[in-house]
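Supplementary Data S3. Sequence and C-alpha cells for construct A.
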Amino acid sequence: GPCTECSCSSGKKTDKNTSNTKKKENGDQSFIPKIFFGTRTHKQISQITRELKRTAYSSVPMTILSSRDYTCIHPVVSSSIGNRNEMCVELLEGKHGKSCLYYHGVHKLSEHHALQSAHRMYHAWDIEDLVSLGKKLHACAYFAARELMVGADIVFCPYNYLLDPQIRESMEINLKGQVVILDEAHNIEDCARESVSYGVTESQLRATREELDFMVNNNIRQKDHEPLRAVCCSLT
C-alpha cells in the first residue's frame, strides 16, 4: 500500500515549519526523521539517484548536497582554478562592488521543485539536472540544494558532510534522531582520517618556526608559543 509517513503519499507542498512533523489526531506533533544517504564519491550519488528514479519512491522530495566545484554556475567563479569557496563568499559579501546575480535567484529553483511536488510531478534528480535547471533559470544550484534540504525526506551527500563536524555545522546538518545510511561503509576509516588530517610543506614549517621565534623572543605569550615552536622544530 501507499506510504503514510513520508510525503510521497501526499502531493501537498511542505514548508519549513512542517517538513519534519506530522500532526496526530490529538493535535500533538511527532518527529519524522530524514534519511541522510552518504556515499564516497559524487559519481556514486549519481548512480543511487538513477536507481531511485526506478522505484516507487521517485516522487519523494530529495536533495543532493555538493560542493561549489560541482554546482557553481557563476561564469567567473566556476571557470576559476583558485579557491571557489573564497571567491563565492567575496561575491556574497559584495566585495569590490560586485555581487552574485545567481545567488539572488535561488528562490526560482527551490520554488520550481516545490511547484513540481505540489502537482505530483516530482521526480528524483541528479546534480547535473539541478545545475542545468539553474543555468536555465539563472539561479544558484549550490544554495538551492541547501534550501531544498528543509523539505526533503532524503538527503544525498558525500561521507565528509556527515562525518566532519565543521562541514555539518556550515551546512546546518543536525543528525540527532535522523536515519543515516553509509554506502560502502568500509571506506569510512579513510574518510575520517582525511577529515582530521592536514598537509604542510617543509618551507611552511620553517616559516612558521621563524614567526614563533619572533613571538618568543619578544615575550609575546611565551607559554603558548614555545610548545608550538618545539613541535615545528621536531617536525623539521
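Construct B, processed identically:
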Amino acid sequence: HMPEKKLSLLCQENPYPAVTMHKVQKPTEGCHLRLHQKPFPRLDEGTVQWIIDQATAKLQTAPPAVKAEKKCMVPSGPPIAAIMERNGNALANSARRLEVVRNCISYVFENKMLEAKKLFPAVLRAMKGRAARHCLTQELNLHVQQNRAVLDHQQFDFIIRMMNCCLQDCTAMDEHGIAAALLPLVTAFCRKLSPGITQFAYSCVQEHV
C-alpha cells in the first residue's frame, strides 16, 4: 500500500515532461451544495518528507548549470568622424531652416512679396520642427516691438498663414510655450479693413485647440 502511495505522489510531483499545461475544469453551478463530495484525503507526513528528501538529494548531486560561452566578432560600426559629420549636417540643416523662416518674415515686412512667396513653401515645411516655430514667435515679436504691427492685406495674409501652420503643428507640449508666445502677437498684428474698422490676427486663428 505504501509503494502505491509513493508512486501516486511521485507522478503528481513529476508529471510527464511533455505535459506543460493542465486543464482544470470549472466547477458547475451549485456543486458546493451537493452532499456526496468526498473529503480531501489525509496526507501521510512520512511519504511527503520522503519525496522532499529525494528531490533535495537530486538537486545536491546535479552539476551546476553553466551556459556555454559563445565567442563572436562584434562589427566595428561607423567611424567617429562619420557620426560627427552626420550630426554636423543635421545642425546645418536646422540652421538653414531657421534662416529661411527669418528671411521670409523679413521679405514680408519689407514688402518683397515675390521673394517671400518663393520661400513660403519651405517655411511651411520648416514649421514641423519646434525650433522653427519658436523662431517664428521671436521674429514676429521683434516686429511688434518696432511698431510694425499694422499690416497691409498681403502682409496680413502671409503672417496669418504662418501662424495657422505653426499652431497646426503644435502638440500638447507646446501649449505653454509656442501657443502661449503667440497669444500676445495675435492681439497685436492687425489690418485696416475700412476707416474705423480693424481686424486683428486672433480672429483668423482662434479656432485652434
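The longest strand covers residues 190-194. Residues 80-109 form the longest helix (30 residues).
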